[in-house]
Amino acid sequence: MADAVLFEFLHTEMVAELWAHDPDPGPGDNIWRWLLPLESWGQNMNLSVLESVGFRVGQALGERLPREMLAFREELDVLKFLCKDLWLAIFQKQMDSLRTNHQGTYVLQDNSFPLLLPMAAGLQYLEEAPKFLAFTCGLLRGALCTLGIESVVTASVAALPGCKFQVVIQNS
User: b or e along 61-81 (b: 16 or more beta carbons within 10 Å of the residue's beta carbon)?
Assistant: First the structure.
């Protein structure tokens, strides 16, 4: 239980730090900013940083999987593994549903996503919710990459604390 609380606290602090308004960043802050076009600074860059951190964490988790887990034969088996075992290891619960169109698009739904539970009290937080999902999108994409599946992962929130992650498999 303590691990879950520490993870939630760390995640909240990462989001808060990236969204903190600093009108005059110091000389070492955001050193990669000059690499990006001006219009991508701000929120898009913050989402990208959170997604990148999540991607690396997902890769690390995928690298620690037992060898027999890495021998999945089909994409659907990999997604089932993510929804059950990986989600259980990270959030102490399984994903609520997994749907597919059998053409490389999967929708993973969590009706009580732990990172959105603290803000589920009011509708005023609905527009703030997506920034709390960028890390998890990266986490899913990183785990899939380690398992040999290139993908694009997006998230949406219709009602708190539920969310949907859409996974589109990239054909290589």
Answer: bbeebeeeeeebeebeebbeb
User: Which token pair is 26?
Assistant: 């110091």
What type of residue is 49? V
β partners of residue 104: none
Q: What pLDDT digit, counting tens, does each position of 139-156 carry?
A: 999 999 988 899 999 999
CB 119 within 8 A of CB 125: yes
pTM of the model: 0.80
Bridge partners (DSSP) of residue 99 are 107
Portion of the chain with pLDDT greater than 90, in percent = 40
Contacts of 116 (CB under 8 A, 6+ apart): 129, 132, 133, 157, 160, 161, 162, 163
Q: What is the pLDDT of residues 75-97, one digit of tens each?
A: 898 899 899 988 998 899 999 99
The CA distance from 87 to 170, in Å, is 22
The DSSP annotation for 90-138 comes to HHSS--SEEEE-SSSEEEEEETT-TTTGGGTT-GGGGGGGGGGTHHHHH
